[in-house]
Amino acid sequence: MKAVHDLTLRLAERRSAPAFHPRGVTCAGELHVPGSDDGHWAAPWLDRRGSYEATVRWSRALGLPGGLPDGLGLALRAKDADGSGTALDLLFTSSRAGRLGRHVPVLRHRALAGPYSTLVSYRAGDRERVLAAFPVRGAHGPVGAGLPSLRRALARGPVRFELCAAAPDEPWRLFATLVLGAAHPVPERSTVSYDPYIHNLPELRPTDRWSGLRKAAYSGSRHGRTAGTS
User: Fold this and answer.
1) Does residue 134 contact residue 117 with C-beta atoms inside 8 Å?
2) Left if phi > 0, otherwise alpha if psi is -120 to 50, otherwise beta: which for 202?
3) Which domains, ranges and CATH numbers included, belong to the chain?
4) Calpha distance 106→154 (Å, rounded)
5) What Gene Ontology terms describe what this protein does at the molecular function level (predicted)?
6) φ and ψ at residue 86, rounded to 5 degrees
7) Is 154 exposed, middle or buried (0-12, 13-18, 19+ CB in 10 A)?
8) What are phi and psi of 29, to 5 degrees?
9) pLDDT digits (tens, 9 = 90+) for 111-158
10) Helices H, strands E: what count in the chain?
């Protein structure tokens, strides 16, 4: 784990940005949870109707030149998700929707060509489920994966995603909708330090599988960014 921590620390320090997803587009978002009349999720936050302000970052995972396909990230922080001062971070990466494909990152030329998933399972209520963000088609034509293309898409009007969850033996089921507004006008220099292992809810949290490796990577990236900007 120390090797992973040190590697991401050095990479973040060199970039003065996160080790992965070093550059992105940040915008305000609105997260709407419709709730569940039948208590389907067996989790208060998922079963309770609510709306939350969000800070969302759309980014390129490897930081490759904009003309090349890249893994795409969609990171959101829901404000006051479980009471005042409680943040919920959800991090999605471009993937596929199938039982195996939802666990594997996919490089894309088009930002809205397919789903984004958490890759790892979450303890969501009484089951282990992968979470995914599916683009809502119709409002936008093809959107390239470069940062200028993402900014233009946000400027044309709201970009919408349906957030769904599924265990391996379940179909995808909607648990929230996410609406992205216009990109922040200032150039991105510092970003929100998203970390789903710090900002989660008791009934909606990443499982322990791979947690040591991912926690080491998040920690190294966070400390490297601090060192690189000091």
Assistant:
1) no
2) alpha
3) 23-206 (2.40.180.10)
4) 22
5) heme binding
6) -100, 115
7) buried
8) -140, 165
9) 999 999 999 999 998 899 999 999 998 767 789 999 899 999 999 989
10) 4, 11
